[in-house]
Write a structure and sequence with these properties.
The complex is a heterodimer of chains A (209) and B (104). Chain A is of the alpha+beta class and 209 residues long. Chain A is 19% helix and 31% strand. Chain A is built from five helices and ten strands, in the order H-E-E-E-E-E-E-E-E-E-H-E-H-H-H. Classes of the chains: A alpha+beta (209), B alpha+beta (104). Chains A and B meet through strand 8 of A and strand 2 and strand 4 of B.
């Protein structure tokens, strides 16, 4: 086989394929669930575009999402989503580049109420007049003027995590536990622009549609 | 009352049309005491304040956000949300738009 043919075959096999996570599989069950005694959180990402809608350099980089106990919850890559159910109360969630020590993480804290549906959206966000963009968690909520939860949800395919392999990845990341504990939540990064804990009212009584 | 607010909006646009910033109120908004520019909260792009809020007016500026922020502080609103500026290298680079908001 000539090298030209090898290149062509490689492009055919890999070049045009959308980047995919090895820890997540496309979920057949796309129905969103509300459980009376749990809080449901949909983690959504758009890492493929910047805030001007242009392709960006973070496209194809997977971000692992974990909780305050470094429990693996799922992985987000480009435009994707996954749903988790948590015990009501206060929690912290963070995202970090998956093949890293989890040191460079983006976290938020919130108080989550039973029977409510929350949406957490990881995207590139303009944070100043100098066009600087940073990864940031945004929260489509019932009183949002800028973000419509249903639109965010509709555009993101649903995935389910391989919890065993995902936890292995988190556990094997160097110093993952201490690094994850040092994740700075958004209120510590952005001051009073972000709440210390997202209030329970940021959840929906029904699944947004 | 509604007619008066429309007239006032037009007057504001006419008066500010030749400056670097224009402001159109979204309706009848009660006057508020001015505040320092440093007290104003600025939210870019899709970011939003923590409080439940109402949009009370719309800004456009030809240069950057500073003239909007100065005017908004004089009007005593709580901040600007949906601040968007045309990126460098595009038509109208530097021009910005924003919405004035007050917390409920």
């Amino acid at each position: 086989m000539t090298s030209k043919a090898v290149v062509s075959l490689s492009v055919a096999l890999f070049g045009c394929a959308a980047p995919s996570s090895t820890l997540m599989i496309r979920s057949d069950d796309t129905a969103h669930k509300l459980t009376p005694d749990k809080a449901t959180i949909l983690f959504v990402s758009d890492l493929a575009h910047d805030s001007f809608g242009q392709p960006n350099t973070h496209a194809g980089i997977p971000y692992v999402v974990f909780d305050e106990n470094t429990r693996f919850l799922g992985e987000l890559i480009d435009v994707a989503s996954f749903e988790v159910q948590v015990t009501p109360g206060k929690h912290m969630f963070a995202a970090a580049a998956s093949r890293s020590t989890l040191a460079s993480c983006f976290a938020f804290r919130g108080e989550f109420a039973a029977g409510k549906y929350y949406v957490a959206w990881l995207r590139f966000q303009q944070v100043g007049t100098n066009q600087l963009q940073m990864l940031k968690w945004l929260f489509p909520r019932p009183d949002s003027h800028s973000i419509h939860a249903a639109d965010v949800m509709a555009g993101a395919p649903r995935f389910q995590g391989d919890m065993v392999q995902g936890q292995k990845l988190v556990d094997e990341a160097g110093n993952a536990e201490s690094n994850a504990r040092s994740c700075k939540p958004m209120d510590e990064v952005y001051g009073n622009q972000a709440p210390k804990y997202n209030p329970p009212e940021w959840g929906f009584d029904t699944v947004p549609h | 009352m509604e007619r008066w607010s429309r007239v006032r909006a037009v007057v504001v646009v006419v008066l500010t049309g030749c400056s670097h910033v224009s402001y159109v109120p979204s309706g009848n908004v009660a006057a508020r005491p001015p505040k320092a520019k440093s007290e104003l909260r600025l939210f870019f792009d899709l970011d939003e304040p923590n409080c439940k809020y109402d949009v009370v007016g719309f800004y456009q500026a030809r240069t950057d956000i500073d003239p909007m922020a100065i005017d908004a502080a004089e009007r005593g609103v709580d901040g600007l949300v949906n601040i968007k500026c045309a990126p460098p290298g595009t038509v109208g680079a530097g021009a910005c738009s924003a919405k004035a908001y007050v917390c409920r």
